[in-house]
Amino acid sequence: MNKKIDISIVIPVYEEEESLPELCGWIGQVMDKMQEKQREWHYEIIMVDDGSEDKSWEVITQLAGTNPSIKGIKFNRNYGKSAALDTGFRASNGEVVITMDADLQDSPDEVPALYRMIKEDKYHLVSGWKRKRHDPLSKTIPSKIFNGVTRLLTGIKLNDFNCGLKAYQSRVVKSIEVYGEMHRYIPVIAKWSGFKKIGEKVVEHRPRKYGFTKYGLKRFITGFLDLLSIIFVGKFRKQPMHFFGALGMISWLIGGLITLWLLIDKQIKLYIDHIPFGQIRDIVDQPLFFIALTAVVIGMQLFLAGFIGELIALNAPHRNDYLIAEKLNFKED
Asked: Number of folded domains in the chain?
């Protein structure tokens, strides 16, 4: 009979061979202290090697050989942090899942408090907030702008969306899919999936001890594009016509109003102002006519995009997959 796992710690790893032994030792000490307070308490550490080219996998193999609670998954190549997290989520067995980075900038001492917030305060998700950061201004200033815009567009009141130290109920990570570079927006994905009790905890941010950062300014540019993408997909994935159709109607309305104005303007000049017919420009010779024509054509294209989107959604294999929180009086197969 498999033992129940209370907590799973998922750690994406990319070329962090120097920090892994110290990190696992630190986590082990924290877990031992928690184990002293609770009987029959078990944990697992899942390290996902995201195609590291250093000796990270060899170190993970050695650590797993000495501690059966340590598990490893190795990608054949580098797929990115989102892929590592999603794979770790699928492999996790704990009632509470906690993620942290492998570079020792996240403190394992925060784990007990995060665990209690999930178990006792019943949060669906708790995100860390690195209030005091040990990063250069080139990272902290864009990060503040990024977090501010994300709060504004999503309505989620978090100060640090991109903090790697987070805690989740197991059913949250089993219900969502993290892909591309969407790991920054896991709270947004969770909210769209109905997990709205999202908390925040101030956590310690430590200076980097080994190696160098793997992220540059490029992530802030792609981050905003990912944000727009996740908002669109979250709201209109099952009903694309609601988005494209609304824009198409607006475009058609603009084109129709311009055309109507051109017709009325011509009649006014003919019958009220008594301007001779030959002195009035034809409607098709006026720039406004081509603006109206363009608006009508764009409106038709948007409608067609909506229809095609609806056909794709209709034939999607998971179109009727809805997250069910609870059931009553149903026998499970």
From this structure: 2
Q: Which domain holds residue 22?
A: 7-236
pLDDT digits 0-9 by tens, 267-300: 777 777 666 655 667 777 788 888 989 999 998 9
Quick one: which of 82, 236, 60 has its CA closest to 162? 82
Q: Answer with the one of 210, 236, 262 that is the final residue of a domain.
A: 236
Sheet with strand 166-169: strands edge to edge = 70-74, 43-49, 7-13, 96-99, 166-169, 125-129, 198-202
Q: Alpha-carbon distance 93 to 98, whole Å?
A: 12
d(CA 29, CA 294): 67
Torsion-angle region of 28 (φ positive above 0: left; ψ -120 to 50: alpha; else: beta): alpha
Residue 229 sits in the same domain as residue 259? no
For residue 117, tell me if it sits in a domain. Answer: yes
pTM above 0.70, yes or no: yes
